[in-house]
Amino acid sequence: VMGEVVRPGRIEWSDEMDLIDLLAHVGGPTRRADTSKIEVANNGQMTNFDLDQYILDGSPASNLPRVSAGTVVRVHALPDDPSDNKSQWVSQSSDASIYVFGQINAPGRYRFTDEMHFLDILSAADGPTMDADIHNIRVTHRGLGYAKVSKLNLSMYFETGDESILPDVRPGDTIYIPEKNKNWLDRSKESTVRVLGEVRDPGRYVFNDNMTVLDLLAEAGGPTNSAYLEKISIVNMS
Questions:
Q1: How do 148-152 and 108-111 pair as beta strands?
Q2: Cβ atoms within 10 Å of 110's Cβ, excluding its own
Q3: Alpha helices, DSSP H only, in the chain?
Q4: If 0-12 CB within 10 Å is exposed, 13-18 middle and 19+ buried, where does residue 133 land?
Q5: How many structural domains are present in the chain?
Q6: Which domain-ending residue is among 47, 75, 103?
Q7: Are residues 122 and 171 in the same domain?
Q8: 31 contact partners, CB below 8 Å, separation of at least 6
Q9: Which of 135, 152, 177 is the C-terminal boundary of a domain?
């Protein structure tokens, strides 16, 4: 029994023992053990065993991987914080990882299982920064055989609590949180409105369905002293 157990070593085998007995003999997994992916090598075959799920389901002993004399059990360590020790987290397989980039407090590569969801990853990465545009988060779904990108308005989720707003994420996916004040050239014309003429800060502004003309005028600094308020023109290009 090797890896992240209290007393790794060679254990004398008897036919009455199973995998749980073996782990008990070596003192059990350590605090850093990844118990969701224990490797069991037996007679030339490798089995990955999820001890966490086995315990949660209350599964019978018959669901345990078969072990016998000569079996090798290896318990991997959970990856370290990517900002602290990159030499450790690069050893984590990509099929158990999600990538988080952009305006996040701890961007990097994070371990992910099917029991976790989008908010788990966001929390593990210490959440968005103050400059994050949480209205336009992008999730790139990989391994589907075709290109798929989901757009998430996290602010809308916090306002409504609607769980259907959160995208389904899987190992291998990429989460990108853009900057709030990014270059307007990077924004599509469908998400912006142009404010021209006698306002203090004319220009191109981000717009969504929750905003009104008054919101836009306020964003543009309001009308100047010479503005003709009785005849504001609105041109709808759609």
A1: unpaired
A2: 23
A3: 19-25, 51-57, 86-89, 118-124, 154-160, 213-219
A4: buried
A5: 3
A6: 75
A7: yes
A8: none
A9: 177
> What pTM value is reported for the model?
0.54
Q: Return the beta strands (E) in 54-96 as ranges.
A: 72-75
Q: How far is CA 86 from the centre of its chain?
A: 18
Same-domain pairing of 192 and 208: yes
| Backbone phi, psi, residue 120, to 5° | -60, -45
Residue-level pLDDT, tens digit, the chain, 238 residues: 898 899 998 888 888 888 898 899 889 898 888 888 889 998 888 888 888 888 888 888 888 888 888 889 999 887 655 444 444 444 556 667 888 999 999 888 887 777 788 898 888 888 999 989 888 899 998 878 888 889 999 988 988 888 889 988 888 889 999 888 765 556 666 778 888 889 888 888 877 777 888 888 888 888 998 888 888 888 887 6
Domain that holds residue 196: 184-231
**H-only helix segments in 30-153:** 51-57, 86-89, 118-124
